[in-house]
Structure formats: C-alpha cells, structure tokens
Amino acid sequence: MPKRFFQILSTLLVLACSLPLAAQSKSVDAEGHKWWQHAVFYEIYPRSFADSNNDGIGDLKGITSKMAYLHDLGVNAIWISPCFPSPQVDFGYDVSDYENIDPMYGTLADFDRMVDVGKKHGVRIILDFVVNHTSDQHRWFIDSKSSRTAPHRDWFVWRDGKGPGQPPNNWISTFGGSAWKLDPTTNQYYYHYFYAEQPDLNWRNPAVEKAMLDTTRWWYKRGVSGFRLDAVDTLFEDPNLTDNPVLPGINKQGDPNTDEIHNKKLPEVHNVLKKLRTVADESDAVLIGETWTSNIDELKEYYGSHDNELQMPMDFMFTTVDKLSPPEFRRQIAQVDSAGGWPVFVISNHDKVRSYNRYGDGKNNDAIAKLMGAFYLTLRGTPIMYYGEELGMENNDPKRKEDVKDPIGRTGWPNEIGRDGERTPMQWNTDTNAGFSKKDPWLPVPPSYKTHNVATESKDPNSVLNMYKKVLALRHTNEALLEGSYTALNEGDANVMSYLRSYKGRAVLVALNMSSSPQKVTFNLADNGFASASLKGLIATPQSSAKGTEVMLEPFGVYIAEVTK
Ligand code: NOJ
Ligand code: CA
To answer: Of the candidates 368, 360, 382, 347, which has an alpha carbon nearest to the alpha carbon of residue 481?
Structure first.
C-alpha cells in the first residue's frame, strides 16, 4: 500500500476520534435504531447519589467517582435531576440560572470533567430542563416583577385580579392554593402552576422561546446528549384565563378538585416540542418527556405526527399498574406498542414511591424486585432506571411532620407526606450513612442499608443487584432483546407474564411468575416459528427451570431462555 494511503487513513481516524460523542454516533443500526434505543438510562437525584466533600449533599464529583460502577452495571446514559443554581425550594426544580452549576454540586469545570470521564466509561449525560417555570430568584423574574414596563415583564404571566383580593381566575397550584400570587410592587398577579417561588414562563413570548432554545444549544456544545423535559404538560395556558370546571371533592392539599382543561396539555405545547426537537437533532440528542398522559392517544401525540417531537415520552400509564397483574401489564404493553413510537419504561422516580414498596408484598420484596427488573429491562423499548432500584432500595418515609423536607409534605401532612422517602441517599456499603457521606446526609438512610447496598450485594450471586447486572448484560449482547419484536404468550394466564422477543429467526422467551405460589407453564411456540422448540436457560432464579417447553417457576420466579429449534 502506498504511504499516502496510510497517511489519509490515519488522518481520517484521528478526525473520527476527535468528533464529539454525539456526532460519532449519528448512524443507525440495521434496524434503523438510534443510540438511545439501545441505551439503558438511569436517573440520578444529585443531592442523594454520592457526596465527595462530606457536606451531607451529593455532588457532581461524587457522580464522576461512580462512573465505573455505572458502566459495570450496564448503564449508558444518566439523567441528572436539576443541578443548576437554585434556591432549592423544590430541590433544584426552581432554577435561577440555566447555564451554570449550583455551587453545592460543584462548578462548570466539574461538569466538564464529569462529561469526559463519562465518555471514557461509555456513559452519556442527560440534563433536566425545567421548561415550564424558573425560580423567583432568576434574573428574568427579578426584572419582570420590578415594573410593568420592565424588559422581561412579558416573560412571565401577569394579570390583574378579578377584584380586590381576588385572583384572576380559579386555577389551582398543584402544590396547594391558588395558582396566582399578588406582587405588591406592580399590584398584579403572576401565575405559578407549582410553588409561588416557581413562576411560569410565558412561552407565547418569542423571546422566551429563543432564550430557552439557545440554552439547549449551549449545553449540547458542552457535551450533553439530551434533556429530560420537566412538566411539559403545563407550558401553555388559555390566554382568556377561562375558569376550570370544578369537580366534586377536595385534593390532598385541601383544594377543590378541578378539571384542568384550560391550563394543561394545550395544543401549543406541540409547536414548542417540535422546535426543541429540531435543535436536538442537530446534535443527535434525545428528548425525554415527563409526560403524564391519561390515554394512549395523548402519548401518541407526544411522539409527534412525523416522529418530530419527543423521541422518548415516558409511559407513566405503565406505572399506574401498581400490582403484579399479568393481564393489566399485557394490556398496557399492547397499548404502548400500538402508539407507533419507541416505548419508554419507568417503574420508579423521584416523585413516586419506590417500586420496591409499590410492588412488594412485605414478605417477598427482594424476589419481587428481581422479577420487576427482569421484566421491564427485557421489554421492547428503552428503560429508565432510578438510582438504587438495582439494590432493592426502599422508601424511607418521614414519620413526623417536623422531619419533612419536601414542602408539599409539610403543607399536605398527613394526607400528603411528600417525596422525601424515595429520595434518600444511595446505599454504597455498610459504613455509617451507607457510605454516602461522612456527615449526616440531608435525608436519613433506612436501616435496611445494612443488607441492601452495593458492597454487600456485589458479593451475593442471588442479590437484586446481581439479577439487574445479569439482565442488563444480556440485554446489551442479545440481538433478540436489542432489536426483536415483542409477542405476548399464554395470554389467558393470570399468574405468569410471558413473552417472546424475536429477531431474524432467533428468540428469547421470558417467563415471570407474578404469584406467590409455584407455577408450571407449557409453551406452544409452533405459531411463532418454532415447531419443535426447546429452551436453553440464560437467566433463572434458583428454583426455576425448564424441560422441553415446560417451565417450572418458584413463587415470583424468573426464567429467561434462548428458544432453540
Ligand atoms: C416534575 C418534577 O419531577 C418534580 O419533582 C417537580 O416538583 C415538578 N416537576 C415541578 O418542577
Ligand atoms: Ca457534597
């Protein structure tokens, strides 16, 4: 070969290696799948993951120090809940500067290092973009409230009251009380769907739209691979401020129930999502939506009619199946498959009681945690794990009102105890505070940290952690799990959830006993192209096995097998 050829080749290689991660992976695989369709996502609540400076609060250096753990677990992207400067009224969901890092979490230099170390471990960074509202301490709002003619006045939603002491209409804040607050400086009310310290941005103002789109560009340039978009349902309000219909009863905060048709899920939301998507596509980035849909048509809309909105709207309807019910899970999976987009499965997050408690029966919680991991990590779609779920971390709910940190728990106590319980520190080992911090952490770890922690579980082949690791390793290497279709099996079975993931004549069968008694199931796979099939076990709980196509499952047992002809 001529020397010149090698010179060109090596120049091309150097160029390829120096491209940003996003640009390098623009390609799709043979099935047209993008990087985020094969990735496993993991949500980190930064206050609670790892505390590098022992002040009791997690930080970015802490996250960076755990990249090898995340890689070994099988995680490819971390979604970090807001780590931007914030007065922390809603623990970061009240952002006072979108283009910086809160000093409690570190600096922009720490952020850059986290991106670099993440890249070395194959872990991408997804940030949480709080699009609906800022903090009342954001300079935009400080200017906005200063006078009726301030340059940023129209960046938020200001209105006159209906009369003396009366807000403009009957809209209720989801965190309690009226959604309007009177500001004495200009004697007008501003709108806040969440806390009064979280004023809603006015997305009808093109300047707001431009500033927010530019913010995403700024972070993409810094190496971010996408955003989780907070509270997209509430971006727009009816400009006529029509009252919402009042429904019977009161909510947990003691406010009247209302049908929020005039301040939620307005069609204008989709125009904004399309614009955010256009910018994301320039960097091969992904948009994940906090999409609280009540039916499959709403979910479908979030993907966009031409796959031009969110690539990954979360299917929270899946989390409403709150018991181990194969028929209900089958129904929900079939529904989400019919939406036409790529499914996104979540079983826990920082706003929801941990899956360990939601699905656990109090006696077999570890077995059930393994079963749930084996379940949603083998479905067709992208899973988003919640930190500590892989350990069987449980909720540690406050017992007394005075211990509550989450404001909705303080205003709603005892009907609404808040979300502290699912936000406690990650359990790394058996040291004080579960190895999270040498100082008492901002929230206490539950006593179960002694058994449910990374160090202890790593040594136990039957731990929840090792089940997660095995399933994730299989998911990353098995083509049927990566690319294959989903077919429900034995659909009349009320106890065993089973399905086939098939790709190019090969298939993986997953059988999950969702009951507390042993189950024996026979599979006829002739219609699935396996006339004389047998099963070769890949992952199984100790007492679960197969003979031919008959599968024996212990209570809450798991059996995952390669189907052979
Ligand atoms: C949804 C977030 O997940 C939640 O934690 C937060 O309180 C609200 N949005 C308001 O930003
Ligand atoms: Ca810290």
So the answer is: 382
